[in-house]
Design brief:
- This protein is mainly beta.
- It is 6% helix and 45% strand.
- It has one helix at residues 3-22, and strands at 39-44, 47-48, 53-59, 64-69, 74-75, 87-91, 99-107, 112-119, 124-128, 132-133, 138-144, 151-156, 161-164, 166-170, 174-178, 186-192, 197-199, 204-206, 211-214, 223-224, 232-234, 244-249, 256-265, 273-279, 285-291, 306-309, 314-320, 333-340, 348-358.
- 28% of the residues are buried.
Length: 359
């Protein structure tokens, strides 16, 4: 064979090889199984929450290319490379809507097979607009799986009381309710949707059943007895209603706001909490609850009585009286104050609303 003939032969061999290579089908690694006729015999489990792995068994499943949950056509991601003719594994999508629905499995030929499945999507509440209520108060709950809520109630399972609230509006991530009149002093919300019922971890205080130190005005018998600049009632800011009590703490003077009832409130072990809202100043500060009925002197800084207040926002506090130095048995409570260390840089104004003693 001459050199030229050798080159020609090698070229033909290379071209032939390239031709054979180009005839091979590119794949994504999925099993090379024909569409066939998919049949599902079992799905395990048959109900689950978002993120849970589910196994489907049957025949003709190796060519499945999409899995979609019926409600709002939510797709489920899965690795087709892990398919076999007899099984598929996928996870429930986190945004799948709750309740019983069809799950649709479709192969490359467009053939679809369905199986019933219950997505467990209990309502969850991550934040709320208010912890206090009276009849007609509108509260916004933010969380997830709210769009199919059917009932909301203020409830106490121990007392067996459940007072229905009115659903004003709802979406996937937000629920707005109007609170009912209730005989409960405090209670959680029982929320029911297509998956079932939950109780909120947040507890709601019935203002009408609480002892009022300050709401829109000073409670019965209360007046201002602040150190330094007097506190005033302001309509500039309010967490609830139309007004709050405001106090300017002067730079370096360690002032306190003082809610005083000189007649006094007799001790009762029935009181469980002090609660309220404080709107912060220009920076984060700590205020210290102080009374004339605790072990410490009025105006002392007791660490267990500290309330951390965020800047320029309403901060809610709820402190169990047994966890703080507030009210010793047998003593009469006449003064409830909030003292600050400083401020060191400038005068700072704080606002106080719904200061309550709760049974």
């Amino acid at each position: 064979m001459t050199f030229n003939n050798y080159i020609s032969f090698a070229s033909l061999t290379l071209l032939a090889g390239l031709g054979l290579s180009s005839c091979q089908k590119d794949t994504d690694g999925s099993p090379q199984i024909g569409p066939g006729n998919p049949v599902i015999s079992k799905i395990m489990p048959d109900s689950a929450a978002g993120g849970v792995a589910v196994t489907v068994t049957g025949t003709g499943l190796g060519d499945i290319r999409s899995i979609v949950f019926e409600k709002q056509n939510v797709p489920a991601g899965f690795q087709s490379t892990l398919n076999s003719d007899g099984a598929i594994i996928f996870r429930i999508p986190s945004d799948a809507l709750g309740g019983t629905q069809k799950v649709m499995f479709t192969n490359s030929a467009g053939t679809t097979v369905t199986v019933p499945f219950k997505v467990l999507a209990y309502p969850t509440v991550s934040s709320i607009s208010d912890y206090n209520f009276s009849k007609g108060t509108v509260i916004t709950l933010t969380g997830n799986n709210m769009d199919d809520v059917t009932a909301v109630a203020v409830a106490d399972s121990v007392k067996g009381i459940s007072d229905a609230a009115t659903i004003v509006s709802k979406s996937k991530t937000q629920l707005v309710v109007q609170m009912p009149a209730s005989t409960l002093t405090r209670g959680t919300l029982a929320i029911t949707n297509g998956t079932g019922r939950i109780r909120t971890r947040q507890e709601f205080i019935n203002v009408e059943k609480a002892f009022k130190i300050f709401t829109d005005a000073y409670g019965d018998g209360y007046q201002d007895a602040s150190w330094g600049d007097a506190a005033t009632v302001s309509t500039k800011e309010a967490k609830d209603g139309k007004a709050s009590a405001t106090k300017t703490y002067q730079k370096g003077n360690w002032h306190l706001i003082n809610f005083a009832n000189w007649t006094g409130v007799n001790y009762s072990a029935d009181y469980m909490y002090i609660t309220g809202w404080i709107k912060g100043a220009s920076a984060d500060y700590s205020l210290y609850v102080t009374t004339d009925a605790g072990k410490a002197a009025f105006g002392d800084f007791v660490e267990a009585n500290r309330v951390d207040v965020k800047a320029n926002t309403w901060t809610y506090f709820k402190i169990k009286l047994s966890d703080m130095d507030f009210w010793s048995a047998g003593k009469t409570l006449k003064q409830v104050g909030f003292r600050i260390k400083g401020p060191d840089k400038q005068d700072e104004a704080f606002y106080f609303d719904d200061i309550l003693l709760v049974r």
